[in-house]
Design goal:
The chain is mostly helical and 169 residues long. The protein has one domain. Helix content is 75%, strand content 0%. Helix 1 crosses helix 2 and helix 5 runs antiparallel to helix 7. The longest helix is centred in the N-terminal third of the chain and has 37 residues. The mean pLDDT is 87.
Length: 169
């Protein structure tokens, strides 16, 4: 289930111009499906990575630094924190991306909103693939901004019949 979106994400990162040209032909639904599956996978990975990091850190403190740890409380705290990170990923991946798309819509009036949304969903790929294990996501955000620029630059307006389902605006 996740193999195809991850392969597609790696293709986006390795050759963005080619993939953004192909994006013009893809439907919004297929792009949203790939994005949603990668978002859920990244959220789960971030939660699991954080949980394992906290448990390994507690074991390190207990074994090597001789700190007395109450494991039930530590596991309760770690699970709560990891769950919070999981929901933060899903929240920021949906609502904050939606608000960012509305803000970008003000600057790119010549691009249809659905096309702009597809470009944004493709552009967030570096954060989804690598953001779950980096402490500082700023370089990935710059990479995403570059992908937004590349997507806008390679966008081609496609004529759609007025009675077609593709006419969403």
């Amino acid at each position: 289930m996740l193999k195809e979106p991850i392969k597609k994400g790696i293709k986006i990162l390795s050759n963005p111009e080619k993939e953004f040209k192909i994006l013009n032909k893809k439907s919004l639904e297929s792009v949203v499906w790939d994005y949603a599956s990668m978002l859920v996978a990244a959220a789960l990975l971030a939660g699991i990575f954080n949980l394992s990091f906290l448990i390994l850190r507690a074991l390190y403190f207990n074994l090597l630094v001789n700190v007395d740890i109450e494991y039930l409380r530590m596991i309760n705290y770690s699970i709560g924190r990891s769950t919070s990170i999981l929901f933060l990923y899903i929240f920021s991946g949906t609502f904050l991306l939606f608000f960012a798309s509305l803000l970008l819509r003000l600057f790119f009036r010549n691009v249809k909103y659905t096309s702009l949304l597809k470009i944004l969903l493709y552009s967030i790929t570096p954060l989804l693939l690598f953001g779950w294990f980096l402490a500082n996501p700023f370089p990935l955000a710059i990479w995403s901004l570059f992908l937004i620029y590349t997507g806008i630059k390679n966008h081609k307006h496609i004529k759609v019949r007025k009675d077609s389902i593709e006419m969403r605006e």
